[in-house]
Amino acid sequence: MAADVQDFIRDHHLGTAILIGHSIVEADGKRGAKVAMAVAIQSPQLVHSLIPVDNAPVDAHLSSDFPRYVRAMREIEDAKVSRQAQADVVLKPYESVRSLMAVSQWTLQSQEKRD
């Protein structure tokens, strides 16, 4: 994937790029932050700045709960909840995903700050 990014920069005549890579796992198992770092190491002349985001220092795999976590967060968004009690009802089927309660609380707090 790093080669693809390098080719893109060259093909579009971008000169030096500011690369931002997030550690979401791609379909081929590569993480965005690690791909961006590989580009910077392999072709430093193409990279002006590098911003790796949420990059684990190890080769870690996402929890098998991750798809359920995403579904639950989408359900909260679709339900347009405005109170923690509403989020708790939406999250009831997802009790096995331990981090969801903390994340839902953070999500609602963030929403309140935007409103």
Summarize the entry for a quick read.
The termini are far apart. The protein has 5 helices and 2 strands, in the order αβαβααα.
Oligomer: single chain
How much of the polypeptide forms β-strand, as a percent range?
5-15%
Order of helices and strands: HEHEHHH
**What is the total tally of β strands?**
2
* Physical arrangement of strands within the biggest beta sheet: 1-2
> What number is the mean pLDDT?
77
Number of helices: 5
* 3D shape: elongated
Structural class: mainly alpha
- Give the C-alpha Rg: 19 Å
The biggest beta sheet is recorded as:
2 strands, parallel
Measure the end-to-end span: 39 Å
Helix content: 40-55%
Contiguous uncertain segments of 5+ residues: none
Question: How would you explain this protein's 3D organization?
Answer:
There is one protein chain. By secondary structure, the chain is mostly helical. It has five helices and two strands; from the N terminus they run H-E-H-E-H-H-H. It has a two-stranded parallel sheet with strand order 1-2. Strand 1, helix 2 and strand 2 form a beta-alpha-beta unit. Helix 1 packs across helix 2 and helix 4 packs antiparallel against helix 5. The chain is elongated, with a radius of gyration of 19 Å. The model has no long low-confidence stretch (mean pLDDT 77).
Question: What are the defining features of this structure?
Answer:
two-stranded parallel sheet, single chain, mainly alpha, 50% helix, 2 strands, 115 residues
Write the layout of secondary structure elements.
Elements (H helix, E strand, L loop, with lengths): L1 H10 L5 E6 L9 H11 L4 E7 L12 H14 L4 H8 L8 H15 L1
Parallel strand pairs: 1-2
